[in-house]
């Protein structure tokens, strides 16, 4: 019997294989229906989809007119409308570069990845912040989903390489390097992320030389990047410890230096093992971007809360949080599935 033909039989056995399983299945189905039906009625059937103002939402369901009216702010914050092509272009460039790296031949992946790592981060900052021919846009005007994605990407650019170096440092035989790595990891893991962001916003300007300022958004990104780097280091360290010592010894016997053995033999295997944990930390990073609200940086959730202060849209709390939560869920679910596909591909 083919796999396709056996699939319905497998499901029947799993859901109705015995009287006890059948009862549990029916109870769970009733519970799901009891929860899902009112939600579906509120979100879809009884919802208001067209209109321009709060007065158009006369039904008992969701008022998606609010999301429609505020959609630009949810996506871009207070970024000038006539300049929104810039974050759009930056997003397209990042997406195309990622697709090129994923679908490129194996021999070109490393070169394309390094080129993207060198070119795209400064290019993205230039497009968003302006200067050198573009109108300058202050970071206080950034917001919404655009800012959430920006913080996630640039904090990860700090967290991932720093986390790998810290994991290697914690495994180092040099006592000074190991001590510094341990102190860094334990300090940043032991302090709440919300406190780090708040203190980075307040203390960093005090320790900088006079006349040198650090942008508020940059402080939040650096603080968040350092915190996630500490967790990334532990995830990578788990992958390093899972490798047999014979891997390093074999590389040494072949005459490879420490860094060549680490780069070509140890790290690729360790990162493959720790990929699920690294993905989990990146998903946590995406969700932790909401904490920048404590220093008045309006990411997607911050814009949702700020939009509720408009007297013209009083009472739209549910719609704002459901819409924001759905976007966060879609991003995290996509990252999870992408990680799963990488695990499957690497496991072949």
From TrEMBL:
CDD domains: TM_PBP2 (cd06261). It is found in: Cell inner membrane; Cell membrane. Keywords: Cell membrane, Membrane, Transmembrane, Transmembrane helix, Transport. The chain crosses the membrane at residues 20-44, 85-104, 110-132, 144-167, 187-208, 220-238, 290-308, 320-338. GO terms for molecular function: transmembrane transporter activity. This is Amino acid ABC transporter membrane protein 2, PAAT family. GO terms for cellular component: ATP-binding cassette (ABC) transporter complex. It holds the Pfam family BPD_transp_1. It is a multi-pass membrane protein. PANTHER family: INNER MEMBRANE AMINO-ACID ABC TRANSPORTER PERMEASE PROTEIN YHDY, MEMBRANE COMPONENT OF AMINO ACID ABC TRANSPORTER. The lineage of its organism: Bacteria, Pseudomonadati, Pseudomonadota, Alphaproteobacteria, Hyphomicrobiales. GO terms for biological process: amino acid transport. Belongs to the binding-protein-dependent transport system permease family. HisMQ subfamily. It comes from Bosea lupini. Its main location: membrane. Residues 145-339 form the ABC transmembrane type-1 domain. InterPro entries: AA_ABC_transptr_permease_3TM, ArtM/GltK/GlnP/TcyL/YhdX-like, MetI-like, MetI-like_sf.
